[in-house]
């Protein structure tokens, strides 16, 4: 596969998706059809259907391991149907969440085991990891306050978890970033949206210069 795979990660309220939308608008005029934007869980019909089940606030009886398995199932379908074909076609794939989310949210947040969830996802992904992961870091208290202020009409099952849950998620992300410094690049998401977007675009252009001109501009 000749394309490049970039995942965007972060705790709830980090502003990851909002920043990603701006970044896509900035890069699209230059990359055109070479740019593929997708998300997890989701990215195609089957994976989106699984997403609806996972995030439905009415599914309060869902077992933690069931949740983790559903994420892995959605991820597998996403890879086969969306990500791998794009990489084989030399596309630059930007994905809103991937395997690190499962490790942080289900492994640490749900406390079912980070290593166990990681191993399960290695099977689901057949070992496919992003070439680059951009992690948007924000303290849990700030992230939750942002959710309650700006996303009152889109709050899902994970958003309503206790502060302790979200702190475990963030701690797991920070540990992953420390353990994988070549792949995971941390961006301070407490900065202004403009500064966050600028920092992320700089990282993308520098690490994927083949998709841009020689000056990286």
TrEMBL record:
This is Thymidylate kinase. The keyword Transferase applies. Residues 8-199 form the Thymidylate kinase-like domain. Phosphorylation of dTMP to form dTDP in both de novo and salvage pathways of dTTP synthesis. PANTHER family: THYMIDYLATE KINASE, UMP-CMP KINASE 2, MITOCHONDRIAL. It comes from the Bacteria. GO terms for cellular component: cytosol. The keyword Transmembrane does not apply. Belongs to the thymidylate kinase family. GO terms for biological process: dTDP biosynthetic process; dTTP biosynthetic process; dUDP biosynthetic process.
